[in-house]
Specification:
Elements (H helix, E strand, L loop, with lengths): L2 E5 L3 H12 L3 E6 L10 E4 L2 E4 L9 H9 L10 E3 L2 E6 L5 E5 L2 H12 L3 H23 L6 H5 L1 H8 L10 H8 L3 H8 L20 H5 L4 E3 L5 H12 L3 E4 L3 E7 L2 E7 L3 E3 L2 E4 L3 H8 L7 H4 L6 E9 L9 E4 L4 H9 L10 E4 L14 E9 L7 H20 L7 E7 L1 H8 L31 E3 L10 H18 L1
Parallel strand pairs: 1-2, 1-13, 2-9, 6-15, 13-19
Antiparallel strand pairs: 3-4, 5-8, 6-7, 10-11, 11-12, 14-17, 14-18, 15-16, 16-17
Length: 489
């Protein structure tokens, strides 16, 4: 039985702990915060409950897989439902559009509201699924830093289909050519934000992302998104994993080029293997200061961060659903502000998540809990106090105008996160939500490896390494790292 120490209890760290425990290893997880889950956290405020981080649950089978691997019934730990409606979209000219779990219904509504061909929309959604399966088999389920990945049968299939993946045009260019209405292109461009990227720079390969919602479904866990890390933590503990909360790691100890253990604020531990679920930059800068750093990788542009308002609203809005988007008038200008000038546009797109639409206990009777997210640049020393205040004013004005209501007077409780707070609470470099941005045709696939032979017995998991950020990819990183562990052991 090997002794394994894990730095950080984000969703990837918990998943890796479960996989190691299922292999019969003794696992210890060290977390600086008082709770496990990383960005999957929770805020309670005056009778309102908010999921502080991710608000969309896709590919639930990746979570279920961990329970099945441990010989447990997933439904005894975590319940969830597929939402019949995916998202409601609002534009300032009065255009409104709903998308649905049924791709045919979505295609017909986009055709009716935006004047597109329903057949073209349906074909686009179907093609996203085909391309996703090609990319998933080659890039998302395996280490890209092993020769076998590039020479196997799946790789050959991927090479034969490279022309279909859109590596050599941007997502926006692809959508602009594909659709008649600029609003349709904007609707599908927004999926670049699912890994913190710019649709005007990122390759059209990322047009596979809509497949997750339109073909596979958007889900909501009973008890909120926070129940995902809570249920997995319960499973990990049932398997014998020990969690050390409020015990930050201060150093990953090495003898030569081999990891030997961890130092924390409370003690020194010897381990046969270590895994870092922390962002790669603070891992190298703070925990591995003597190790040669992959400078080119660490210096890549960061993904977007976010300004998030948590608003307790003292009334209900029938025109809103669980997921809602209030689009900017000038989408390109918004992304130029984020990625080129590292600031906030005066007219940002607002995403409003209202879990009380399906979980009434998340807000007092007759009220709603609004999670309001605007994409923002990573922290590089901007005047965030001013940017937060201006963004709040602009977003309230925007939503008020579209809904025809004075929103300000209905906000009775409030909290917020900005890139500084995200960086402090999650140790994410600059508060970037997805590690490095994927704003060129290779960055989406060539991220930090899950194992570097130059640092023996150290594995890397989480959103800043391969295959990327977001719940599904963090879970995949744990699966890939566990596979590498078995190959190396």
């Amino acid at each position: 039985m090997a002794q394994i120490g894990i730095v950080g209890s984000g969703i990837g760290g918990i998943a890796f702990a479960i996989r190691m425990a299922c292999l019969g290893q003794q696992v210890h997880v060290f977390e600086a915060n008082a709770y496990p889950g990383g960005k999957l956290a929770e805020i309670t405020l005056d009778g309102y409950r908010f999921d502080a981080g991710p608000s969309l649950f896709t590919l639930p089978q990746l979570v279920d897989e961990l329970f099945t691997l441990a010989g447990k019934n997933p439904r005894e730990y975590l319940q969830y439902e597929r939402l019949p409606e995916i998202c409601r979209y609002f534009w300032e000219d009065g255009t409104r559009l709903n998308t649905h779990q049924d791709p045919d219904k979505t295609s017909k509504e986009i055709a009716e509201v935006l004047g597109e061909s329903a057949t073209n929309i349906r074909n686009y959604i179907a093609e996203a699924g085909i391309k996703y399966n090609i990319v998933s088999d080659l890039f998302l389920d395996n280490s890209l830093h092993k020769l076998a990945t590039w020479t196997g049968k799946k790789a050959l299939t991927g090479y034969a289909n490279l022309h279909r993946l859109g590596l050599f045009e941007t997502m926006h260019t692809h959508h602009q050519k594909r659709f008649l209405n600029p609003k349709t292109a904007q609707l599908f461009d927004r999926y670049a934000t699912y890994n913190g990227s710019d649709p005007y720079q990122t390759p059209a390969t990322l047009s596979i992302i809509p497949h997750l919602e339109y073909n596979l479904g958007a889900y909501f866990p009973s008890g909120g998104m926070i129940e995902i890390p809570r249920s997995l933590t319960r499973l990990a503990k049932d398997l014998g994993v020990e969690f050390h909360l409020e015990e930050p790691v201060t150093n990953i100890r090495c003898a030569g080029n081999q990891v030997t253990g961890l130092d924390t604020t409370k003690g020194t531990y010897d381990f046969d293997y270590v895994a870092s679920n922390a962002d790669i930059r603070p891992t190298y800068d703070r925990l591995l200061p003597e190790i040669t750093k992959p400078k080119k990788l660490l210096n890549q542009p960061k993904s977007s961060s976010g300004i998030i308002f948590y608003w307790g609203v003292n009334r209900t809005f029938d025109e809103l659903g669980v997921h809602n988007i209030f689009f900017a008038e000038n989408y390109k200008r918004e992304f130029d502000a984020i990625f080129k000038t590292q600031t906030m546009d005066e007219d940002p797109t607002a995403y409003v998540h209202i879990s009380s639409k399906v979980a009434s206990e998340d807000a007092p009777a007759g009220c709603e809990n609004w999670f309001v997210l605007m994409n923002a640049p990573a922290n590089s020393g901007q005047d965030w106090d001013n940017l937060v205040a201006e963004t709040r004013k602009n977003v309230i004005a925007k939503i008020s105008q579209i809904l025809g209501v004075d929103l300000e007077k209905h906000i009775v409780s409030e909290d917020y996160l900005d890139p500084r707070r995200i960086e402090t609470r999650t140790s994410s470099s600059g508060g970037a939500l997805y590690g490095n941005a994927s704003n060129n045709k290779f960055a989406a696939f060539l991220r930090h490896p899950n194992y570097r032979p130059s640092i023996k017995n150290l594995y890397w998991i989480g959103g800043s390494v391969h295959p990327g950020g977001g719940i599904p990819l963090c879970l995949s990183s744990a699966k890939i790292a566990a596979k590498l562990f078995q190959e190396n052991a």
